[in-house]
Specification:
68% of the residues lie in helices and 9% in strands. The strands form 3 sheets. It has a 6-stranded mixed sheet with strand order 6-9-10-3-11-12, sandwiched between helices. It has a 4-stranded antiparallel sheet with strand order 2-1-4-5, covered by helices on one side. Strands 7-8 form a two-stranded antiparallel sheet. A hairpin with a 2-residue loop joins β11 and β12. The longest helix has 55 residues. The structure holds adenosine-5'-triphosphate and magnesium ion. The site of magnesium ion (MG) has 4 residues, from α13.
C-alpha cells in the first residue's frame, strides 16, 4: 500500500513535469528543472496536512469517550430506575437510547480509525520521496547510504494507524471519567484518582527501566540489519565460496546482542505491565468495596456503585495500555525524529541559480579529502586545470585515491578543503540536478538500475525524446550490442544486472554517462571489463568526445586509452605527482611498465632461488631421517626423468 501510494505521487510528479515539458517544447530541460527546483518543504506540507486531521480525530475521540459513558449510565438507570419502578416503557426507552448512542459511538470510532489510516498513508506519500532523496544525498558526507531513515518512515506510518495512536487521544480525556466518578461520590473519585497517579508513576518507572536496554538493543539491531543488507548484496560471493554459515554467524553476533538487550527490556516491561494490571483491578475491587460500604450507609445506590466501578476501570484502561505500548511510543518518537532530521538535511540541497550549459572548463584547486572519522588524507593538494574539450588520464597504484578523486569531481563527495570549479562556479554552488544533467559519471563498480536498458541509458528520464537514448548508444557504439539482445532496448535487467555480462554492463553505463550531451564526463576504469573491441569502442568514443568539445577524465590502469588523452596525472598516496601534456609524460608512462617488468623479473629470480633453497633443504633433512620418503623421492625423480 505504501509503495503504491508513493508510486502514485511519483507518477503525479512525473506527469506534471512531462506536461510542463510539453508546454515548452523549446527547452524541456529548463522547464522541467523549474518544476523540480523549488518544491514545497515536505515537513511543512506534512504538518499542514496532519494538524487539521489530528484536530478532527481529537474531536471524534471526545465524542467517543463521552459516549463510552453510555454503558455505566445505562446500568445505573436499569438498577436504580427500572428495577425500582418496574416500568417496561422506561426500560424500552432507555434501551433504545443506549443502542442509539452505542451505534453512534461505533460509527465515530470507525471514522476516526479511517482518518488516522489515511493520515498514515499521507505520511508516507509526502515524506517517502524526500527521505529516500536524503538517503541518497547523505552518501556525500557519510560515504555510504544508510537505509535506517526509510525503516523509521515505515515504523511511524504503522504507528499512526495503530490502536496505540488512538490511546494518545483517549488518555487526555481521562479527566472526563474521573469527573464522572467524583460526581457519583467524592470518596470514589479520590480512590480512582490515586490509582491513576499510581499508574502514571508505573509508566514513568517503565520508561526509566526499559529505555536504556531498548536503546542498546536498537543500536545492535540496526547494525545487524545493515549487515543483512550487505549479505544480501553479496549473495553470489557467499554462495560461490560456501560462506553462508560464517556470514550468518557474523550477522548473528550483533543480532544476538540486540536480542539479549531486547529480551532484558521485555522482562522488565512484563513485570511492570503486570503491576499496572494489578493496580487497575485492585482499584476496581476497592471501588466496589467502598461503593458497597457507602451504599450500606445510604450515601450511594447499588447502580451508582456498579457504574462508578465501570467508569473508573474505563478511566484507568488507557493508562494501563499505554504502559504496554510505551516501548512502541518511545521507538516511534525516535523514528519520527530520524525522519525529520533526514528531510531537514535535504533542505541544504535546495534552490541554486540556474546557469547556462557549461563549456566544460574544469579547475581543481588544492583538494584535500579525509574520509569521515579518519585522520589520514586520501587526497592531498591535488591541483589541475582542464580547458573545454581537453582530456585527462589519471593513473596511479591501487589505493592512491583515484576513485575518491573521481567521486569528488562529480560532486558525490564533498572535499574537506579545496575547490572544484566547473566553468568557474564551485560545485557546491551548482544546482545539484542541473550539474548532474551536464555531467556523466561511470563508477568503478558498475551497477545498473532494475529496469529496461533504455531506462538505464536515459537516466530514467521520461521527458526527453528517445532519440537522445539512441544518440548516446550510437555515440558509445553500444547500439549494435543492444540490438542483438532479444528485447533490444526494452530488455529488462534484474538487480544483479542479468542478463548482461560485466563488460556489456560497463558499456551500457558508458552510454549512460554520455547521455544528453554532457559537458564533463568522468570515467573510473571504464575498460576494466572490456575486450579489445570494447576498448576500441571506448577509444573511438573518447575521440568523438574530443571532437564535440566534451571534457573527459579517465581513470585507468591500462595504457591503451592513453594515446587519445591530452594530459596525464599520476596520483600516489593521494598526492599529485605529475600533471602535464601527454606528449611530455608519455615517456613516464612508458617507463612505468618497463620498471614494473624489471622489478617483476628480479623478484621472480629471487623467488625462484629462495623457493629452491626452501624446497631442497627440508627435503634433504627428511631424506636423512626417513628412508621410506627417500625411496619415494628417488622413484618420483626417476619417473620424472
Ligand atoms: N570511507 C573511507 N574510509 C576510510 N578510508 C577510505 C574511505 N574511502 C576511501 N578510503 C581510502 O582511500 C584510499 C583510496 O581509495 P580509492 O578507492 O580512491 O583508491 P583507488 O586509487 O581508486 O584504488 P583502485 O585503483 O584499487 O581502484 C584507500 O586506501 C582507501 O582505503
Ligand atoms: Mg578506484
Amino acid at each position: 500500500m505504501n509503495g503504491r501510494a508513493s508510486s502514485v505521487s511519483n507518477c503525479e510528479d512525473t506527469s506534471k513535469s512531462v506536461q510542463t515539458a510539453e508546454s515548452s517544447a523549446s527547452d524541456p530541460r529548463a522547464t522541467n528543472l523549474a518544476d523540480i527546483r523549488n518544491p514545497p518543504d515536505p515537513l511543512s506540507t506534512w504538518r499542514s496536512r496532519a494538524r487539521p486531521t489530528l484536530t478532527a480525530v481529537a474531536v471524534f475521540s471526545t465524542f467517543v469517550n463521552l459516549m463510552m459513558l453510555t454503558m455505566p449510565v445505562y446500568l445505573f438507570q436499569l438498577s436504580d430506575r427500572v428495577l425500582t419502578s418496574r416500568s417496561l416503557d422506561t426500560l424500552l426507552m432507555l434501551t433504545i437510547v443506549a443502542l442509539g448512542f452505542i451505534g453512534a459511538l461505533s460509527l465515530l470510532d470507525i471514522v476516526r480509525r479511517q482518518v488516522l489510516g489515511r493520515l498514515a498513508t499521507s505520511f508516507e506519500t509526502i515524506l517517502g520521496g524526500p527521505v529516500l532523496a536524503s538517503i541518497v544525498t547523505s552518501a556525500k558526507v557519510a560515504d555510504s547510504a544508510n537505509m535506517q531513515s526509510l525503516r523509521s518512515l515505515h515504523h511511524v506510518k504503522s504507528f499512526i494507524a495503530s490502536p496505540v495512536m488512538l490511546l494518545l487521544f483517549d488518555v487526555p480525556l481521562a479527566p472526563i471519567y474521573f469527573g464522572a466518578v467524583f460526581l457519583i461520590h467524592p470518596a470514589l473519585g479520590f480512590i480512582s484518582l490515586v490509582s491513576g497517579l499510581v499508574l502514571i508513576a508505573i509508566a514513568i518507572a517503565n520508561q526509566k527501566a526499559t529505555s536504556g536496554p531498548l536503546g542498546t538493543a536498537n543500536l545492535h539491531t540496526s547494525k545487524a540489519d545493515a549487515q543483512a543488507e550487505a549479505l544480501a548484496r553479496n549473495s553470489q560471493v557467499i554462495n560461490a565460496m560456501g560462506m553462508l554459515n560464517e556470514s550468518i554467524l557474523h550477522w548473528g553476533n550483533d543480532q544476538a546482542r540486540g536480542l539479549i538487550f531486547h529480551g532484558g527490556a521485555l522482562d522488565r516491561s512484563f513485570w511492570i505491565s503486570g503491576a499496572s494490571k494489578f493496580a487497575r483491578l485492585f482499584t476496581q475491587i476497592v471501588m466496589l468495596a467502598a461503593g458497597a460500604y457507602l451504599a450500606l450507609h445510604g450515601r450511594v445506590t447499588g447502580g451508582m456503585m456498579i457504574a462508578a466501578s465501570i467508569i473508573a476501570g474505563r478511566a484507568l484502561q488507557p493508562f494501563e495500555i499505554m504502559i504496554e505500548g510505551w516501548r512502541n511510543l518511545v521507538q516511534t518518537r525516535a523514528a519520527y525524529a530520524r525522519v525529520c532530521t533526514a528531510v531537514d538535511s535535504l533542505k541544504q540541497e535546495r534552490a541554486h541559480l540556474l546557469l547556462p550549459k557549461p563549456t566544460g572548463r574544469l579547475s581543481v584547486e588544492r583538494l584535500l579529502y579525509f574520509p569521515p572519522g579518519t585522520k589520514e588524507a586520501v587526497l592531498n593538494g591535488v591541483t589541475f586545470e582542464l580547458e573545454p574539450g581537453q582530456s585527462l588520464a589519471i593513473v596511479g597504484p591501487s589505493g592512491s585515491g583515484k576513485s575518491t578523486l573521481a567521486r569528488v569531481l562529480v560532486g558525490c563527495l564533498y572535499p574537506t578543503a579545496g575547490k572544484v570549479r566547473l566553468d568557474g562556479t564551485e560545485l557546491r554552488n551548482w544546482d545539484r540536478r542541473q550539474f548532474g544533467e551536464f555531467t556523466g559519471y561511470l563508477p568503478q563498480e558498475v551497477e545498473l538500475f532494475p529496469g529496461t536498458i533504455k531506462d538505464n541509458i536515459c537516466r530514467m528520464r521520461s521527458d526527453l525524446p528517445d532519440a537522445k537514448t539512441y544518440q548516446a548508444a550510437v555515440f558509445t557504439e553500444v547500439h549494435d550490442i543492444i540490438c542483438q539482445l532479444p528485447n533490444g532496448y526494452e530488455t529488462v535487467m534484474e538487480r544483479s544486472g542479468a542478463p548482461l555480462s560485466g563488460g556489456q554492463k560497463q558499456r551500457i553505463a558508458l552510454a549512460r554517462a554520455f547521455f544528453a550531451d554532457p559537458a564533463l564526463v568522468v570515467l573510473d576504469e571504464p575498460n576494466s571489463n572490456l575486450d579489445s573491441a570494447g576498448e576500441q569502442a571506448l577509444t573511438n568514443t573518447l575521440l568523438r568526445a574530443k571532437e564535440k568539445g566534451v571534457t573527459v577524465i579517465v581513470i585507468t590502469q591500462r595504457p591503451a586509452v592513453l594515446n587519445v588523452m591530452d594530459k596525464l596525472l599520476v596520483l600516489r598516496n593521494g598526492r599529485w605527482k605529475h600533471s602535464a601534456r601527454r606528449q611530455k609524460f608519455s615517456s613516464v608512462w612508458r617507463a612505468l611498465p618497463t620498471l614494473a617488468s624489471l622489478r617483476q623479473a628480479v623478484r621472480g629470480i629471487w623467488l625462484r632461488t629462495s623457493h629452491e633453497r626452501w624446497r631442497v633443504r627440508p627435503a634433504r633433512k627428511k631424506q636423512r631421517n626417513d628412508p621410506g620418503l627417500s625411496r619415494y623421492s628417488s622413484m618420483a625423480s626417476r619417473r620424472a626423468t
